[in-house]
């Protein structure tokens, strides 16, 4: 069988939906300590196992003691998470437990009737955690959602419900089988659960599985702010449609190494504390981050849960990486959307803007490609995303649309222009897809 990273299984029981909880991490199976283990945690485990609602959260090695690694301790789920790994915990392998404290679950089983569907029973069927065919659990079985009137607002709700960041695109995946549960879904985009949206009623549809709805979510994006260096700055992550900072409690070089890997910025050099790169504003998303250094994203490290913290922005975490960045790096500013904003490029050690003289969709296409942000939808001019400051690097840009970077297009030369920042160019790209696939065989 194939399982996504941080797969889960139950052991030491003859019932398929009850047993000792074990998760797969870093190449081996391990148990979960029962410190703070409760029904909310069991709800998440049962959902991850497709085993219906949680009926119990037994402790003290109720299903017998495991052996080897103990992967999680002090697990703290709200009950809406898509997996135990994204709940608050101390970090993989960090615990003060023995196997006499192994946690277990008793789930109702796949045939049980879901009394409260709105409590969050959605999954994505596909090869990655945050993209796939949308399926919803109702009346004891999983079923698909028809794509009649399916739009980005509906996708936003699914991505939010699964703690998968923001919706970046709609996509058709392999067809499902069995029940089609929902049709004519109409969300505003602000709902917490898909079942809170308007729809035609469970099982009421005029669809075939060739119309199964799918989504691609961003997962959790990352950026650096507060610095002119492309690989140094205040760490910010994108979650639930909003950029927010990371608290420096427990922040160390292992955490910085993971952020570095996400950003493609080379080895971590320093982990900066106490808002070294200036204080952010708004949301603080992560606190007590505890990475081993091998994770693929900060969201997969131990932490207290998204939005759970005891910090202020004077504790914002930052990082410095060994790579200072080559010329012609590109970034977007002035927008909360990760793939829309004011275009800025890095040249001779300084970030600067692009003038909108001759700026068109061909130029935007190159910028979106360089950003790995899908296709260009718009090429706004006249500082649509606000005016930048400092250097204006490019003017009279002429791209065919096939170039690999804006620097390779025709232009007046770096720093040669007759513009002011009221003419800063911007782009609106279709999406940025950040998908991580972890395949485990057993």
TrEMBL record:
<keyword id="KW-0325">Glycoprotein</keyword>
<feature type="disulfide bond">
    <location>
        <begin position="247"/>
        <end position="311"/>
    </location>
</feature>
<dbReference type="GO" id="GO:0004252">
    <property type="term" value="F:serine-type endopeptidase activity"/>
</dbReference>
<feature type="disulfide bond">
    <location>
        <begin position="187"/>
        <end position="197"/>
    </location>
</feature>
<protein>
    <recommendedName>
        <fullName>SRCR domain-containing protein</fullName>
    </recommendedName>
</protein>
<feature type="disulfide bond">
    <location>
        <begin position="355"/>
        <end position="419"/>
    </location>
</feature>
<dbReference type="InterPro" id="IPR036772">
    <property type="entry name" value="SRCR-like_dom_sf"/>
</dbReference>
<feature type="domain" description="SRCR">
    <location>
        <begin position="222"/>
        <end position="322"/>
    </location>
</feature>
<feature type="disulfide bond">
    <location>
        <begin position="46"/>
        <end position="107"/>
    </location>
</feature>
<dbReference type="GO" id="GO:0005886">
    <property type="term" value="C:plasma membrane"/>
</dbReference>
<dbReference type="Pfam" id="PF00530">
    <property type="entry name" value="SRCR"/>
</dbReference>
<feature type="disulfide bond">
    <location>
        <begin position="399"/>
        <end position="409"/>
    </location>
</feature>
<feature type="domain" description="SRCR">
    <location>
        <begin position="8"/>
        <end position="108"/>
    </location>
</feature>
<feature type="disulfide bond">
    <location>
        <begin position="33"/>
        <end position="97"/>
    </location>
</feature>
<keyword id="KW-1015">Disulfide bond</keyword>
<dbReference type="GO" id="GO:0031638">
    <property type="term" value="P:zymogen activation"/>
</dbReference>
<feature type="disulfide bond">
    <location>
        <begin position="368"/>
        <end position="429"/>
    </location>
</feature>
<feature type="domain" description="SRCR">
    <location>
        <begin position="122"/>
        <end position="218"/>
    </location>
</feature>
<feature type="domain" description="SRCR">
    <location>
        <begin position="330"/>
        <end position="430"/>
    </location>
</feature>
<keyword id="KW-0732">Signal</keyword>
<feature type="disulfide bond">
    <location>
        <begin position="77"/>
        <end position="87"/>
    </location>
</feature>
<feature type="disulfide bond">
    <location>
        <begin position="291"/>
        <end position="301"/>
    </location>
</feature>
<keyword id="KW-0677">Repeat</keyword>
<dbReference type="InterPro" id="IPR001190">
    <property type="entry name" value="SRCR"/>
</dbReference>
């Amino acid at each position: 069988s194939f399982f996504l990273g941080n797969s889960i299984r139950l052991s030491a029981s003859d019932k398929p939906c009850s047993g000792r909880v074990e998760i797969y991490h870093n190449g081996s199976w391990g148990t979960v300590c029962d410190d703070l283990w409760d029904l909310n945690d069991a709800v998440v485990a049962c959902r991850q196992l497709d085993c219906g609602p949680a009926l119990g959260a037994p402790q003290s090695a109720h299903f017998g003691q495991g052996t080897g690694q103990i992967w999680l301790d002090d697990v703290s789920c709200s009950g809406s998470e898509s997996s135990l790994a994204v709940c608050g915990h101390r970090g993989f392998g960090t615990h003060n437990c023995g196997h006499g404290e192994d946690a277990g679950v008793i789930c109702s089983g796949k045939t049980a009737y879901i009394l409260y569907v709105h409590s969050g029973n959605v999954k994505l069927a596909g090869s990655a955690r945050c993209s796939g065919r949308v399926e919803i659990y109702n009346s004891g079985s999983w079923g698909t959602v028809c794509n009649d009137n399916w739009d980005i607002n509906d996708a936003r709700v699914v991505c939010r419900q699964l703690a998968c960041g923001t919706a970046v695109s709609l996509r058709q995946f392999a067809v499902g089988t069995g029940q089609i549960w929902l049709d004519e879904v109409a969300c505003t985009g602000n709902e917490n659960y898909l079942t809170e949206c308007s729809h035609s009623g469970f099982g009421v549809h005029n669809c075939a599985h060739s119309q199964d709805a799918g989504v691609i979510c961003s997962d959790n994006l990352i950026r650096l702010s507060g610095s002119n260096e492309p690989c140094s700055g205040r760490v910010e992550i994108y979650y639930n449609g909003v950029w927010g900072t990371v608290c420096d409690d427990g922040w160390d070089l292992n955490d910085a190494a993971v952020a570095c890997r996400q950003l493609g910025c080379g080895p971590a050099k320093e982990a900066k504390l106490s808002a070294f790169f200036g204080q952010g504003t708004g949301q603080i998303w992560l606190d007590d981050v505890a990475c081993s250094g091998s994770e693929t994203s900060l969201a997969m490290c131990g932490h207290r849960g998204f939005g759970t913290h005891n910090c202020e922005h004077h504790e914002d975490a930052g990082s410095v990486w060994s790579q200072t960045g080559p010329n012609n790096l590109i970034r977007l500013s002035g927008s909360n959307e990760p793939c829309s904003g004011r275009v800025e490029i890095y040249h001779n050690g300084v970030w600067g803007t692009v003038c909108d003289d001759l700026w068109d969709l061909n130029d935007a296409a190159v910028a979106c490609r360089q950003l790995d942000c899908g296709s260009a939808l718009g090429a706004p001019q006249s500082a649509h995303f606000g005016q930048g400051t400092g250097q204006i690097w490019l003017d009279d840009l002429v791209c065919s649309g096939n170039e690999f970077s804006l620097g390779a297009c025709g232009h007046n030369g770096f720093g040669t222009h007759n513009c002011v920042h009221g003419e800063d160019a911007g782009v609106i790209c279709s999406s940025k897809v950040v998908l991580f696939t972890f395949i485990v065989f057993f």
